[in-house]
Design a protein that fits this description.
Length: 665
C-alpha cells in the first residue's frame, strides 16, 4: 500500500460524498436558511449564543474529535487496511455524516434541545425518559474517563514519596501549557465578543499565542501535583466551565484548540505525501483478530470493526454534542451541513491519516513493541516527517502531535459535563414547562449549578475509583447511542412528512452491531463468573449493565417502529381493534415473564444432554469432572435463555402496552 495514494483517494471520496450526498440530504430534509435558529430566538448570552461558522466549527470539531479517530482505526488495523478504509469511507458518508447532520438539524427544529427531546416528540415520553437516563449515565462515564486521562497527563511522578522532576517534566509542561491556553482563550473571547475585535486578526494573534504558550511551557513548568490533586482541580474546572457563558470560554477555547488539530493534520499530510512510503501493512488479515498486538484479541471482525472505529465512521457521542451545545450556537441553518456533516468527514480524514501512521511502523505495532494508539500515531507521522525534513525535527513534531491529542481530552471533558447537565435538567422538565413553574424540589434539581454539581461529583468520584472496570462497555454503549440517534431523527422526519429512508439501513445495521457486541460481552462475563476468583463482582456488574443495554435497545426500537408505523400508515391500527391486535402480545409477554424461570432447568438439561452426546458420552460413562464441567457450561446457557425470554417478554409486555395509549395515538 502506498500511503500517499491511500490518503489522496480516501480524501477525494470524502469530498465527493460531502458535495453530492450531503447536498442531497439538505434538500430532502428542507434546510431553510430563512428560518431563525434557536441561537437567535432564545439568545440568553449563556447557553444560547450565536457563533460565526468558523468559531462553531472549532467547538464542534474539537468536542467530537478527541482521540477517537486516532485510537479506533489503529486498534482495528489488525483486520487490514482494506476493511478499515471501507468502513471509514462508507460509514462516514452514509452513517456518521447522516447521523451527525440529522441530529443537529432535528435539534435546531426543536429549539436547540437534546436528541432526548426529539425522541420525546417523535416516539413518546417513556422513550425520552429511558434515552435520557442512558445518555446521562454514558456521559458520566465519559466525564470520569476523560477527567482521569487529563489528570494522568498532568500528574507528577513520585519515587518512594520523593518528586522525580526529570520524569515529571513532560506532564508538567502539558499542564502549564493547558492552563495558559485557557487564560488566553478567555482573553480572546472577551476581545472578540465584547470589544468586537476582527475575527481574522484575533485568530492570527491567537494562533501565535498558542505557539508562545507551547514555547514557554516547554521551558518553564513549575507546577508538580499528584494525580488525585489534579482530579480535584479538573473537577472544579469543569464545574465552572460548564456553567460559564459559552462566549467566555467554550467558544474561544474550542475555536483556538481546533487550530492545534488542523496543524496536526497539515503536518501529517505533508509528511505522508512528502515521504509517500509503501508500507507493509496487509490489506486483509482475516475475519478474526489473531494478531492481538496489545495482548488481547478484538475477536471477530463483525462486530469488532464497527464498534472499535466509532469517531472515524459513526459515533453516538456526536449526536449529544450536535443536539446539545452546537445547536444552541448555530447562526444559520445553512451552517449545519459544513459543521455537522463536514466535521464528521474531516474526522474520517483523520482516521485515514491514523491508518497511514500505523502502516508506516507496522512491524513495531504487529510485534507488540509500540501499541499505545497515540504513541503509534505520533511515532509514525513524526518518522515520515523527519524523513522528509531531517531527523532533527522528529522530537519537535512528536511532542506537538502528543500535545495536540491530549489537549482535546480537556475540551471533551467539560463539553461532556455541560451536555450531562442539559440531560439532567431535561429529564425533570415536561414539554412546555419552564423552571419558574416547577414545584419546589424539581426547581432545585434543575438549577444549573445543582445539576452541574451532581454531575461533576459523580463523574470525578467514578474517575477516582473504578471507571476502568466498566469502560470496556463504552464502545457498545456509544454505538447504541448512534443507533438510537438515527432512530430518533428517522422517526421525527417521518412524522413531519420528510424523506427518512436514508436512515433505515444505518439504523438497523448499527442496532445489530450493538446487540451482537453486547451478546459477546455477556458471554464473556458469564465465563468470568464461572471462573470465579478475585474481581468476580465486576463480571456481575458488567453483565447486568450489558443486559440492561440490550433491554433498553429493544424497548426503544419497538417503540420507534411503532412511531414509524404511525407516521407511515397514519395509524398503527384502528382504535376499535387495538385490544384485538395487542391481546396476543399481552398474553405472551405475561407468560414469558412469569414462566421464564421455570424453563431454565429444561434448557440447561437439554444443553447438558446435547453436550454429552456430542462428546460420545452418557451420564453413566462420563467422569465426575466431565459432568461438572458440562453442568457449569449448560447452566450458563440456561441463564442466557432466561435472560432472552425475559427480554422478549418485557419488550412485548411493556413495548406494546398500555393499549389505551396506542389507541389514542
Amino acid at each position: 500500500m502506498n500511503a500517499a495514494l491511500f490518503l489522496i483517494i480516501g480524501v477525494a471520496v470524502l469530498i465527493v460524498g460531502y458535495i453530492f450526498y450531503g447536498g442531497w440530504l439538505a434538500k430532502k430534509w428542507g434546510v431553510d436558511n430563512s428560518r431563525v435558529t434557536p441561537a437567535h430566538e432564545l439568545e440568553d448570552g449563556k447557553d444560547y449564543c450565536p457563533a460565526k461558522a468558523p468559531v462553531l466549527m472549532g467547538h464542534h470539531f474539537s468536542s467530537i474529535a478527541g482521540a477517537g479517530p486516532i485510537n479506533g482505526p489503529i486498534q482495528a488495523a489488525v483486520f487490514g487496511w482494506v476493511p478499515v478504509m471501507l468502513w471509514v469511507l462508507i460509514g462516514g458518508i452514509f452513517f456518521g455524516g447522516v447521523h451527525d447532520f440529522g441530529a443537529l438539524f432535528a435539534s435546531i427544529r426543536h429549539k436547540g434541545e437534546s436528541i432526548g427531546e426529539v425522541i420525546g416528540d417523535a416516539i413518546g415520553a417513556r422513550a425520552k425518559k429511558l434515552f435520557i437516563i442512558f445518555a446521562y449515565l454514558t456521559l458520566i462515564l465519559v466525564v470520569a474517563a476523560f477527567a482521569s486521562i487529563v489528570a494522568n497527563t498532568f500528574k507528577a511522578t513520585y519515587v518512594d514519596g520523593v518528586l522525580d522532576k526529570a520524569a515529571s517534566a513532560a506532564n508538567a509542561s502539558t499542564a502549564i501549557i493547558s492552563i495558559m491556553f485557557i487564560l488566553m482563550a478567555i482573553i480572546f473571547g472577551f476581545f472578540v465578543y465584547r470589544r468586537n475585535a476582527p475575527l481574522g486578526i484575533s485568530t492570527v494573534i491567537g494562533v501565535i499565542g498558542i505557539a508562545v504558550c507551547m514555547y514557554i511551557g516547554l521551558k518553564w513548568h513549575p507546577i508538580y501535583l499528584s494525580g488525585n490533586v489534579w482530579m480535584i482541580i479538573v473537577g472544579l474546572y469543569i464545574a465552572i466551565a460548564s456553567v460559564t457563558p459559552v462566549w467566555i470560554l467554550l467558544q474561544p477555547r474550542d475555536y483556538l484548540s481546533s487550530f492545534l488539530l488542523y496543524a496536526m493534520m497539515i503536518l501529517a499530510v505533508v509528511g505522508i505525501i512528502g515521504c509517500h512510503p509503501t508500507v507493509d501493512m496487509p490489506a486483509f488479515t482475516g475475519f478474526k483478530d489473531t494478531l492481538a498486538p496489545s495482548g488481547t484479541s478484538l475477536g471477530y471482525m463483525f462486530p469488532a470493526l464497527f464498534v472499535t472505529i466509532a469517531c472515524g465512521a459513526v459515533s453516538g457521542f456526536h449526536s449529544l454534542v450536535g443536539s446539545g451545545t452546537t445547536a444552541k450556537q448555530l447562526d444559520q441553518e445553512k451552517d449545519a451541513k459544513p459543521i455537522a456533516y463536514g466535521g464528521m468527514l474531516i474526522e474520517c480524514a483523520l482516521a485515514l491519516i491514523s491508518v497511514c501512521a500505523v502502516g508506516y511502523i507496522w512491524a513495531q505495532y504487529a510485534d507488540g513493541t509500540t501499541v499505545t494508539p497515540t504513541v503509534v500515531f505520533a511515532t509514525g507521522l513524526a518518522s515520515m516527517f523527519s524523513k522528509v525534513f531531517g531527523a532533527g525535527c522528529y522530537n519537535v513534531v512528536y511532542s506537538m502531535l502528543i500535545l495536540a491529542v491530549s489537549a482535546f481530552c480537556l475540551t471533551s471533558v467539560d463539553t461532556a459535563t455541560r451536555l450531562a447537565r442539559y440531560m439532567f435538567q431535561e429529564f425533570f422538565t415536561a414539554p412546555g414547562e419552564s423552571r419558574e413553574n416547577m414545584p419546589g424540589w424539581k426547581k432545585v434539581v434543575t438549577n444549573p449549578y445543582v445539576a452541574t454539581a451532581i454531575t461533576v461529583v459523580a463523574g470525578v468520584a467514578l474517575g477516582m475509583t473504578g471507571y476502568a472496570k466498566i469502560w470496556a462497555l463504552f464502545g457498545a454503549a456509544n454505538q447504541l447511542l448512534a443507533a438510537l440517534g438515527l432512530l430518533a431523527v428517522c422517526c421525527w422526519l417521518g412524522k413531519i412528512g420528510r424523506n427518512n429512508k436514508m436512515f433505515y439501513f444505518p439504523m438497523f445495521f448499527m442496532l445489530i452491531v450493538t446487540l451482537t457486541s453486547l451478546a459477546f460481552t455477556i458471554k464473556a462475563q458469564f465465563a468470568g463468573i464461572a471462573a470465579g476468583g478475585e474481581g468476580v463482582a465486576w463480571f456481575y456488574i458488567r453483565a447486568i449493565i450489558a443486559i440492561l443495554l440490550v433491554v433498553l435497545a429493544i424497548v426503544l426500537v419497538v417503540e420507534g417502529i411503532q412511531a414509524l408505523s404511525r407516521s407511515y400508515f397514519g395509524k398503527l391500527i384502528p382504535p376499535e381493534r387495538s385490544n384485538e391486535f395487542f391481546g396476543f402480545f399481552d398474553i405472551f409477554g405475561k407468560f414469558s415473564s412469569i414462566m421464564g424461570p421455570a424453563l431454565v432447568g429444561v434448557v440447561s438439561s437439554a444443553v447438558a444432554n446435547g453436550m454429552l452426546g456430542a462428546q460420545g458420552l452418557t451420564a453413566q460413562t462420563a467422569t465426575a469432572e466431565q459432568i461438572d464441567a458440562i453442568n457449569a457450561q449448560s447452566s450458563h446457557y440456561g441463564i442466557l435463555s432466561i435472560i432472552i425470554i425475559i427480554i422478549v417478554g418485557a419488550v412485548l409486555y411493556f413495548g406494546f402496552l398500555p393499549k389505551a395509549e396506542h389507541a389514542k395515538q
